[in-house]
Design goal:
Layout: E1 7-15, E2 20-28, E3 31-39, H1 41-47, E4 51-59, H2 63-74, H3 84-100, H4 107-116, E5 122-126
Helix pairs in contact: 2-3
């Protein structure tokens, strides 16, 4: 099996009244990982620490269907059969667009969308401390 170089995109940085969030997404041979980092007084109030990191993972076997679902969400109905490299780039670019257009406001919106579209995913977090 040919291993591909991981591809990562920065999804964005958002400032809310009590929390600042940064998110990125990577696709590698295992699938998609969306990572986030929250900092601020809101995090301190919950975790007693100023930083909270988390990730959402979707297996590589679901990426073709994910591209179709993202294109549908963004109003791009084209369903071209993409090479793996192109597919991965299109998924990451579509995620970036969805977050920048606020179709996903945060990782919770993204996880709810995954669940609503029957995408198996794993959530992990690294609690402070």
């Amino acid at each position: 099996m040919n291993e591909q170089e991981p591809i990562t995109v920065f999804l964005g940085k958002w400032t809310f009244p009590r929390v600042e969030t940064e998110m990125s997404a990577t696709i590698d041979d295992r699938g998609l990982t969306v990572e986030g980092r929250d900092v601020g007084i809101g995090v301190v109030e919950i975790w007693d620490d100023p930083v909270y990191e988390y990730s959402v993972n979707v297996g590589v076997e679901h990426l073709d269907r994910m591209l179709t679902a993202l294109r549908s969400k963004l109003g791009d109905g084209s369903l071209a059969d993409e090479k793996t490299e192109s597919r991965n780039r299109l998924i990451l670019d579509s995620l970036k667009e969805a977050f920048s257009k606020r179709d996903f406001h945060n990782s919770t919106d993204f996880r709810q969308w995954l669940q609503a579209n029957d995408f198996p995913s794993d959530m992990s977090d690294i609690p402070p401390g």
